[in-house]
Amino acid sequence: MSRKVVAPTYGAPEVLQVVEFEGAAPTSGDVAVEVRAIGVNPFDYKLYSGAFGSDESDLPISIGGEAAGTVTAVGPDVTGIAVGDEVIVNPGNGLYADRVVVPESSLTLKPASVSWEEAAGLLLVGGTAVDALDAIAVGSTDTVLIHGASGGVGALAVQLAVARGATVIGTAGAANQDYVRSLGATAIVYGDGLLDRVRDSAPNGVDAAFDTVGTDEAVDVSLEAVSDRKRIVSIVAFGRAASDGFLTVGGGNPDSADVRAKARQELVERAASGALTVKIAKTFPLTDAAQAHTELQGAHPAGKFILIP
Question: Coil, strand or helix: which one is 305?
Answer without folding.
Answer: strand
